[in-house]
Amino acid sequence: MSSWLTNLKRRVKRSRSERLMGIPGLAPYSVPNGIRGIAYRLQALLGGQAATTTVAIFIFLVGVTTGLLMMPFASASGEATPLADALFTATSAICVTGLTTVDMATHWSGVGHTIVFVALQVGGIGVMTLATLLAVIASKRLGLSVRKMMAGDVDPSRLHERETSEGYGMRLGDVKGLLKTVFISVIAIELALAAIIIPRLIAWGLDPVTAAWQGGYLAASAFTNTGFVPLVDGLTPFVQDPLMIFTIGVGVFLGSIGFPVIYAISRAIRTARMRRQRRTWDHARLGMHARLTLVTTTVLLVVGALAIGALEWSNQDTLGSQPAGTRGMTALFSSMMARSGGFSTVDTSEFGSATLLVLDMLMFVGGGSASTAGGIKVTTLAILFLAAFAESRGNQDIVVYERRIPSDTVRLAVSVVLWGASIVAISTIALLRVTDAPLDRVLFDVISAFATCGLTAGFTTSDLPESAKFILSATMLLGRVGTVTLATALSGTHRQTIYRRAKERPIVG
């Protein structure tokens, strides 16, 4: 009896402590020291919401990077960079966008380039992912609370549920393997890209030291889907270099599909190898999320390339002046870059209005979830199309790859699209109010900022008013934070009722 009373007192004391801390499942005496302790206390200070913590960390990092870029030592001229330009560049780097109001190749000093390089790496890997990596390194263990925080960052839909479910795209048991995948893939892929890019830069005429620095910078910019180019002439000199173009394209593709997909592919390959060695009877398979991401990405890539090629084939300012073989390569490269890469071998501002509209749609969709790409994500688009198809067939359930998609996932996809469209509409209206630029150019750059793409139709220049720079900076931040995370952060907690209202259908269509 005494032991039972003792345990009851402990539970009551812990429950009271949890309410005081504001973190469910974490008592004050169990708060760890070091990096993990800081993360937990920061989350408690911000109301116990992981989404709010993510937003706060992004704003903090943008502020720190802005302050560093404003220092005289960060610019090549030795003069302080204006606040609007420093903030715009810092936001573009942390949010891995690639838009800029200054000449990235000539404006920044070596220190400035280093600051931008570190910022895009942190933004590309993911703030919460990097924080979790540091926590694991510091503590040499991966507790349940850290797994939940990481899984919520990778799959923000988890933030809408209080109970653990194995039906999510990211299971808690996969977090440790995903962390290893993030760490290994960032190093391995960027080193592989740099190993191909650096010799091409040396052959182009750069000295080995400069080629090594700029090649590593390009490799990181490609994998993180940032789109910053340290070369004075950009990628235009390599427009007919298939090795250079496809290397950067592959880097952007791998960064845009997302770390969970890379992890799923590596796990399937490992399972297949173990099955051949008869060390397991499991079958190598990709989950629904990975298959949806790969199929939708490939379809959009091919359709986008065909549309760009058809619309710009005779445009002498873009594809028309290139050899026939190069035109196809440029169209494919442009379609890939519209997914969030931001690189360009032709002047995007010379594209026709129809082509800009195609690029608008590609940029708005973006890349894969939990990737370095932005946009509403390809799985969101796929879910909406699957829902429309199921409705047209009269099916009650949305089924794909022998799996049923829950209705709350469809509602979340609709919310993401509406959030994204609202952000783009409000930013476009505000920019049209403060500038005299045409709608198609403004809309293109706004979608590029929201989707963290980095392509520009000539609207984002050094002559842009400061108010416009601030508006685009806010758009980039909202796009990178993510519409799901943003909605969850603003909503705070989810209301649960014990009753349901009477049903009545409005007229739709």
Keywords:
globular, two-stranded antiparallel sheet, mainly alpha, 2 strands, 509 residues
In short:
With 509 residues, the chain is mostly helical.
User: How confident overall, as mean pLDDT?
Assistant: 81
Portion in helices: 55-70%
In this structure, how is the largest beta sheet organized? 2 strands, antiparallel
Low-confidence stretches: 12-31, 134-140, 162-168
What coarse outline follows from CA principal-axis ratios? Answer: globular
Question: What would you say this structure looks like, in words?
Answer:
Helix content is 63%, strand content 1%. It is mainly alpha-helical and 509 residues long. It has a domain at 286-491. The chain has a two-stranded antiparallel ribbon with strand order 1-2. A hairpin with a 2-residue loop joins strand 1 (398-400) and strand 2. Helix 4 packs across helix 5. The chain starts with a helix and ends in an 18-residue tail after the last helix. Residues 12-31, 134-140 and 162-168 have low confidence and may be disordered.
